[in-house]
Amino acid sequence: MSALLTKKQSSAPSANISRRAVLKFSSYMCALLALPASAVAAMAERLAAAPRQPVIWLSFQECTGCTESLARSFAPTLESLIFEFISLDYHHTLQAASGEAAERARDEAIAANRGKFILVVDGAVSTKDGGLYSTIAGVANLDMLRMIAKDAKAIVAVGTCASFGGIAGAAPNPTGAVGVEEIVSDKPLINISGCPPIPEAIAGVLAHLAAFGKPPELDRHKRPVAFFPATVHQRCYRRTFYRRDLFARSFDDEGARKGYCLYYLGCKGLVTRSVCATTKWNGGTSFPIQSGHGCIGCTEPGFWDQGGIYQSSEGHRSKRRRDR
Ligand code: SF4
Ligand code: SF4
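Above: the input record for the complex with iron/sulfur cluster. Below: its predicted structure, written as tokens.
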């Protein structure tokens, strides 16, 4: 089942796509990753020449939103090209195989790529009672993660559940759900938080790992700085209203109709790092604040318990006092 979802892993992508397409993809990725122009040629050369990067994708306590974000990104160029550069050897949701054949093929893919594959995880890891609340083929996610992570080159935690526990880890957290970094500490780990994460961030990190063999620059939460460079507030187009104390106070008042700041409707953009306001969603069409809903803070540790969606938390209020 090598290359379960893509072309044969042994062949380089250049056999299937034009040099121009590789260059275009590399330019886009390097721009997203805030890499210098000189990195474009290096990325294109390595992606075109190297065999596809083997990827094993494990889905634990999740809702499939993270997979949907990448696979249905409404950016056909992005999703089709990233799948040209990786060999997605195992993914529950996307693969055709099932049952014992799927599990056997995953083990074969791991055995053939020890120390070389990237392990992607979406969903939180259940730890309570030995992790028995979430299993795959009778194996607890907790045990599977430990078993497979030891052979991985690097781990990418996709989504806030895999990064920090997310919704599965919200109080009262009945399954003892935690993020990957609570379990594995001896491998390079990249957290791409977000519920779900922006697809460009997933593709950018995978492209960087495939081309350069190492993670991009990370912040203190192990998130790629390029995709978490500033708060949503710092780049929000409604900030001009915030500064002038012009706020919507309900979703159907005059302020809401005029597009005023959503702070008093619970917007958590002041304390939430993401490129939502600039990269946006659905191929750059829009993002929640643009459609009239405040930021819910989904990329931060502690999401979902840092205050209700429509209320500001104490940390949020003190940030506002500082950030006048
Ligand atoms: Fe679903 Fe959000 Fe968790 Fe991803 S981070 S698995 S979208 S709940
Ligand atoms: Fe934008 Fe929210 Fe900041 Fe208001 S509080 S400017 S809506 S990010």
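Notes for the reader.
The first strand starts at residue 53 and ends at 59.
Strands lie at 53-59, 86-91, 118-122, 125-126, 135-136, 139-140, 154-158, 177-178, 189-192.
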